[in-house]
Specification:
single chain; 33% helix; 19% strand; 8-stranded antiparallel sheet
Amino acid sequence: MSIVIVSCNSKPESNNLDISEFLKHGRTDTIYPSAKQMEMLKAIIPETTYKAAPSISDRTYWDAIANTKSGQEYLKDAEALIDKQPEVPISDSIYRLANKDGNRKIYKPRYYRTMEHLEHYILAECLENKGRFIPQITTYMQAIMDMKSWLHPNHDDKDNGVLEGRRVSIDLGARKFGMVLALGKSLLGDSLSETMRTDIQEQLQWRITDNYLKSCEIADENNRWIDGTSNWNSVCTSGTLFVTLTNSRSHEERIAAVGSAINSMKHYVSGFGEDGYCSEGLGYWGYGFNHYLYLAQMVYDYTDGKIDLFKGENPQKLKNVGNFPEQFEIQNGTCAPFADGVSHTSSKGSNFAEVLSAAYYGAKKPSEIRFEEAVEQIIAWDHPEMFTPNTTQNSSSELADHTYFDDFGMVISRGKQDVPFSIAVKAGHNAENHNHSDVGTYIIALNDELISGDIGAPSYMAGSFSPDNKARSSWGHPVPKINNTLQSNGKSFKGTITATSFSSEEDKVVMDIKPAYDLPVLDVLTRTITNIKTGNGSISITDYFEASENIDFGSAIMTFANYEILDANTVMLIGKTEKVKVEISSSVGHVEIHPEPVPVEHLREGKGAKRIGIEFKNSVKSGDLTLKYIPFYN
């Protein structure tokens, strides 16, 4: 199998699927393809099943890969794992405990180590063709099929309906189990026993394909991600489509699965801003868009380029999405941990999305290549030029002075001092993917340290997604608290950027954040962010408010740094290597400083988060509150 790189600007051929036209004929009540859509696909979808690579019997293909450096390294890695036993199925008692407590640590590593080992055994057997890995492959496959549920336990319902056999569902884990079994059956063929192949065929059909197509046609409780805008949609859809195209014996089912996937991906792509902004953050961009691009590559290959989801319905938007990571970086590898996002660009995990974005969308090519899934490795073997690391382009190339994602209302203002001092700030709304109640939140970076602002996400455990979790509510964000009232949740509770000005010396952003609060007494609430880029720099956050009666008003300094209260209006933040002085001022009234720990035990960014409350001593009808952050050098 060879992979063809297509330009986003190439003209469609007459027999290619016009995706915009295809989507016009979709049903409004379901993502299952309409009769017209099925007709449009019949001439495009092959009669044969999909194969990610030729079967093990094609020794010309596999011997060529086995003789490459990459093939030899992969085989060596698999040999190091050959004695490892599968860590699934986990016991029912552990499954139920993980469901109840939401504790992923007691099951997730076991699931994914098992998958990683099995993938290595499958590809290593194809490379070597000696039968040496078959016993372990059989053991692992049987262990997976013996599992009552393929779900991550915390994705089952509270009564463990999937574990107890009352229903079937697909999640991030189930799609992975199905995908690896389908890959093994497809590539190894007669190297597996007829009984094993039959068992895999049947389990994939009822656990994945039948369940998926039923949910696509009639919405039910099982797979609510099918029309979602988060990473779940692209991840689960790509794995489910792989299973169906590889395993289903029905041409009609394969057509329906492709049509459902195209309709579903319209919803997924709609979750990004027209400017490419990903409200889930950089980590989920990598996870979700990775699988969108794999799905696009799979369908492109399967149809000989007749279905091109790399361009999709909106080529420019997808190009913007592909270039999101470079636009989102603040400086020195830092990025905003808004919602459940990460705070630093990662050197771990797959960067498949970055590689394909470089090929298809002109994004910056990474200086190293990393995989997490066997299908990614196969694509790399088929197209080594695409997966050659970039050794010429400076990985720390100059970032723009500012980035403005005007669709979602997010700005990164970058200082260019010798020790750069920068801020990322967002308006947004309180129904974004992985939402926190955080309209007006910000993060301030000095050098490579995030010194103040958004403290990021609570770790995924029981209660972590509750709106009452203080790290998820606006209490745990550097935004106003008014009359002891926090921001409300929903798309209508939002912020809007009303003015911007950008120059080499000063950036200013003004936003209206009044709609984020369900407070009839509040007439005006604006937040102005000013980044003075001259000298060592300074960043000011000014909240201005007006109300129909006196109100209690306050805001907060959020930080993981140590701190000292120097006087009634000054706080020193002491980070690992950097210090920042915060000067507090107002044209009306006096303030009090009330520091307290964030009472959330598990936070992704670490321990020791503090909320340093800044509150007016007396209620006021109107006024302003400014926090001015200034780098401090002894």
